[in-house]
Amino acid sequence: MARVYLGPAGIPIGAKERKRSAGTIDGIRYVSEVGLNAMEVEFVQGVRMTREAAQEAGEVARELGVRLSVHAPYFINLCSEERDKVEASLTRLQESLDRGEAMGATVVVFHPAYYGKLGPEGCYNAVKDGVLRIIDWMKENDIKNVKLGLEVMARKSQFGGLEETFRLVKEINHPQVVAVIDWGHVFARNGGSIDYRAVLNMWREYFGDQPMHTHFTCVKYRKGEWVDEHEPIDTNNPPFEPLARELGSEDIEITIINESPLLEKDALKMKEMLLKYNNVLVGLH
């Protein structure tokens, strides 16, 4: 059975309904109250949290046993032809990592790049160079705990196929650089199919029993293709229950961040399915 950390991407719906100006700390408290044990702090539109606020959020999360992670801004492209855009991307990553370290987050997840004119091979090398620069910056700035997570992406124009992401992380071979699986992205990139067992086996092949950080949402079929538009999990594209079943036979630690529009409501449905197959939500009974 898997040891699972499960929660929403961002401030839960219920926290916002209860308090109009609900912030990260309110969200963490609400996550704990409803019986979940993880939350991803969303910096997707920019890093607007101070280091002091990040430290305070981290203290509350530790007190309540909620695992935090961070999603870096969307405006990152390490393969841009414009040098200033690459530098701005690196700065956004640095800011995200700084706040992630302050709050005790496990990982800062980011979307690495679009292939653009560099193509897959050139972009692979550019992403690698950017990540190596970030590793140097982390060492210089005493960022010792939070990890940098390269997310597997949905669009074939984006850097982030499953195999190339795994290969790059394995090649960089640094304890603070990890691959992040988005199960819905894998489904979309594969044209509407996913073999959970094959992905888990591939993880084992590359990373052994290293803990997994993952995202889950269903995606939409529009104009002849699967696109990364988030849907509630009841749409079953992809279905969650087969993943819960496969994890029931895995001796691994995994974080699952629900990115569906229903946030904690769908996360609680996921919890029921995970427990059905004897998975354990860490710290919850």
UniProtKB/TrEMBL annotation:
Cited SMART domains: AP2Ec
Residue stretches making up the Xylose isomerase-like TIM barrel domain: 29-267
Cofactor needs: Zn(2+)
InterPro entries to which the protein is assigned, alphabetical: AP_endonuc_2, AP_endonuc_F2_Zn_BS, Xyl_isomerase-like_sf, Xyl_isomerase-like_TIM-brl
Cytoplasm among keywords: no
A GO molecular-function annotation: isomerase activity
PROSITE patterns with a match to the protein in the record: AP_NUCLEASE_F2_1 (PS00729)
One protein family per Pfam: AP_endonuc_2
GO biological processes: base-excision repair
Keywords carried by this UniProt record: DNA damage, DNA repair, Hydrolase, Isomerase, Metal-binding, Zinc
Membrane-spanning ranges: none
Family to which this protein belongs: Belongs to the AP endonuclease 2 family.
Protein's UniProt name: Xylose isomerase domain protein TIM barrel
Organism phylogeny: Archaea, Thermoproteota, Thermoprotei, Thermoproteales, Thermoproteaceae
